[in-house]
Amino acid sequence: MKKVYLETFGCQMNVSDSERVATSLAASGFEITSIQDSADIVLINTCSVREKAEQKLYNTVGEIRNSRLVKPVVGVMGCVAQLEGETLFKKIAGIDFVVGTRAVGRVVHAIEKVYDGVEQVSDLGERENDYDWSVNDAQRHSPYVAFVPIIEGCNKFCTYCIVPFSRGREVSLPASTIVRHVLELRRQGAKEIHLIGQNVNSYRPKTDSGMELFHGATPFSRLLRAVAATGIERIKFNTSFPRDFHPDIIDAINENENLCNWVHLPVQSGSDRVLKRMKRGHTIDSYFKKIDKLKDSARDVALTTDIIVGFPGETEADFEDTKRAVEYCGFDMAYIFKYSPRPGTPAFEMEDDVTLGEKKLRFIELERVQKESQNKRLQRYLGKKVEVLAERVSSRSADDITGHSTCHKLVNFQGSKDLIGKLVDVRIREIKSNSLFGEVC
Ligand code: SF4
Question: Among 41, 100, 209, 215, which is 20 to 30 Å from 223 by CA?
Answer without folding.
Answer: 100
